[in-house]
Amino acid sequence: GENVEQHPSTLSVQEGDSAVIKCTYSDSASNYFPWYKQELGKGPQLIIDIRSNVGEKKDQRIAVTLNKTAKHFSLHITETQPEDSAVYFCAPSGGGADGLTFGKGTHLIIQP
Amino acid sequence: GAVVSQHPSRVICKSGTSVKIECRSLDFQATTMFWYRQFPKQSLMLMATSNEGSKATYEQGVEKDKFLINHASLTLSTLTVTSAHPEDSSFYICSARVGGASYTFGSGTRLTVV
């Protein structure tokens, strides 16, 4: 099965600064790399994903970069805002019919 | 986009009773749904995969007789926690694949067993 490690577990940044969260995985067959945002008391919500044929993807203030050789991918949030405060999870997968293996999560705190 | 509706959002039950949680795909058909459990300040852990018209498959360590899953139609999967105990108190979340490798999640059910 997939072993997923996510760092850091907690990240506190000043509003307006950038935040980067890294996810390392073990299964070289993984080809789908999503990031989810979970607010308190809610289910996770997909915020960005990337597939293995692409090295980087950007959506406004959010970007994901992938290094398949090193088996890690990262979430980048620029110009952070208070509403970015949440727990973020990575969940790399092989794109099959199985459920997801999530990282342990990163609690992002945006300091005003 | 594809939406999964989960009910109830919160439930409190007494020890020894059973609780049913529903998960519906609103605008698409889901032959497979997934059930996760999340304890406070922890990650989501896959409990079982619900297959329409067939038996669910459970992850190692998850008791199939305690967590009954029924997926009787292409839009509805239910999870019943039987003979609930306080240690079953958790946040339960359902999910469905929505094409390719993308997944959508329900809003979760906070179960408290007293």
Architecture overview:
The complex is a heterodimer of chains A (112) and B (114). Chain A is an all-beta fold and 112 residues long. In chain A, 0% of the residues lie in helices and 51% in strands. Chain A contains no helices and ten strands. In chain A, the strands form two sheets. Chain A has a five-stranded antiparallel sheet with strand order 1-3-8-7-6, with no helix packed on it. A five-stranded mixed sheet of chain A has the order 2-10-9-4-5, with no helix packed on it. The termini of chain A are far apart. With 114 residues, chain B is mostly beta strands. Helices cover 0% and strands 53% of the residues of chain B. In chain B, the strands form two sheets. In chain B, strands 2, 4, 5, 6, 9, 10 and 11 form a seven-stranded mixed sheet that branches. A four-stranded antiparallel sheet of chain B has the order 1-3-8-7, with no helix packed on it. Chains A and B meet through strand 4 and strand 5 of A and strand 4, strand 5, strand 9 and strand 10 of B.
